[in-house]
Amino acid sequence: MNKIFDHSKARIAAAGVVAAILLILTGLAVKADGLTVWKLALGILISLLLGLTVAVRMQAESFLVPETLMILALGLVAFMFDTFGGVLFGKFINLFAKKKINPMIGAAGISAFPMSSRVIAKMAKDEDPYNFILMQAAGANVAGQVASVIAGGIILALVGPLV
């Protein structure tokens, strides 16, 4: 049977056009209304969808095993040591520096960008309302990310031949 027009391809094209029109209209609504409500709604929606897609694929028998819990515990310990070590290193630098730095910046070296730098900046501002260290904390944070990538590459280079 010779078909002149394939309806299945038309349906797929129509669905793509409808999605594109909806995205354009949403963009126009965001531009007209401002970003505050839309950013919040989009953030909640994306978090919900990501959580659902991960949760659907995750089975308790394969996730709640001692190895996974050990990885989570080691990550928490590493996070604590990184924060504590950063503050101590900031205090160590202040022993020899002519111009003192805020040791809280050392705690922003965690590569959980950009949250750790924001938390450190907020803590510093709560302590002293005229203390603005967000840019310095973000710089230390980016340096922590670069150091994490370099450390990961070194570990892969060393462990790769053994595996």
Description:
By secondary structure, the chain is mainly α. 76% of the residues lie in helices and 0% in strands. The chain is built from 6 helices and no strands. The protein has helices spanning 7-33, 35-57, 60-63, 66-96, 115-127, 134-159. The longest helix is centred in the middle third of the chain and has 31 residues, at 66-96. The termini are far apart. The mean pLDDT is 79.
Short summary of the structure?
The chain has 163 residues and is mainly alpha-helical. It has 6 helices and no strands. Helix 5 packs antiparallel against helix 6 (134-159).
Number of strands: 0
The residue-averaged pLDDT reads 79
The structure class reads mainly alpha
Strand percentage lies at under 5%
Number of alpha- plus pi-helical segments: 6
Percent helix, as a range, is over 70%
Approximate shape: extended
Radius of gyration equals 25 Å
What's the SSE pattern?
HHHHHH
User: What are the low-pLDDT stretches, counting only 5+ consecutive residues below 50?
Assistant: none
Terminal CA distance reads 57 Å
The main β sheet shows up as: none
Characteristics:
mainly alpha, 163 residues, 0% strand, single chain, 76% helix
